Amino acid sequence: MTSIASLLRIAGFALLPLLTVGTAQAAEKLTIGLIPSEDSQAMIESSQQVLDSLEKQLGMPVEPFVATDYNGIIEALRAGKLDVAYLGPFSYVLAASVADVEAFAVAETKKTGQSAYKSLILARKDSGIRNLADLKGRTFAFVDPSSTSGHLFPKAGLEQAGYDPEKLFSRVIFSGSHDASILAVENNKVDAAAVADRILNGAVAKGVVKQDDFQVVWTSRSIPESPMVWRKALDPQLKQQIAAALASMKDVPWGDQGMLNGFQPTNDAAYDVVRDTAKVLNLDLRSMK
């Protein structure tokens, strides 16, 4: 089996120094990790109102941290440097296998009213790519080795459709973010890419790209939304306060998901579909335990 350890080594992340948090009972601040689905500054800016509201409701400083890649957040959780984190579904499954964390909430957005999303493989309409067979010999961008919609689900989808992702493309890159992958296709840097549907929709809504420029080649089944996770050892009273504060947040933007309609409870079992998809790729989640 492919070792998850190898995935964690792919990006070659050197963990940035973080201030060490105190014990759960004597916490003086709350540290929150954010996956870099957008560039770091954009991710913090689009999450700032939630972070500010959380800080006010908890009565303690809330310090955000965006790593250079998904695995930076996983490593920070494993090292006990973060209290709470916003992770992709697959990066959560990885984190749960190596760190003492659990999913507790997912965002519900105003636009969809749902807590799920999909992965897309998209190409430019003028590329001539209309189906998966047309990807043969083309260049392709995945987002990150630990990205659910930007790597795990589309790669598994290709295998289930009878294609070997290792042989299908002439060149594969990891762009680092969904935004970067979308722009790579738009600017003809790659022929096609795998991205989250909601991030493409967000880029279109912002006027960064035009929907009519793209051809959707493949769509995944529904993926459980990216969870908020916390350290299991976090003070139980603080956990209750965090969950209640997040549930009350409405009409403010949250990261790459858009306007919030609050956070609803979730649990580890909701991500078994992600574990099942990992099995398609013969990934051994136990190897990092």
From TrEMBL:
SUPFAM superfamilies: Periplasmic binding protein-like II
Pfam family for this entry, one: Phosphonate-bd
Signal peptide: 1-26
InterPro entries per UniProt: PhnD, Phosphnate-bd, Solute-binding_3/MltF_N
GO cellular component, one term: ATP-binding cassette (ABC) transporter complex
Residue ranges constituting the Solute-binding protein family 3/N-terminal domain according to the UniProt record: 29-258
GO biological process: organic phosphonate transport; transmembrane transport
UniProt entry keywords in alphabetical sequence: Signal
Membership in a protein family: Belongs to the phosphate/phosphite/phosphonate binding protein family.
PANTHER family xref list: PHOSPHONATES-BINDING PERIPLASMIC PROTEIN (PTHR35841)
Protein known as: Phosphonate ABC transporter substrate-binding protein
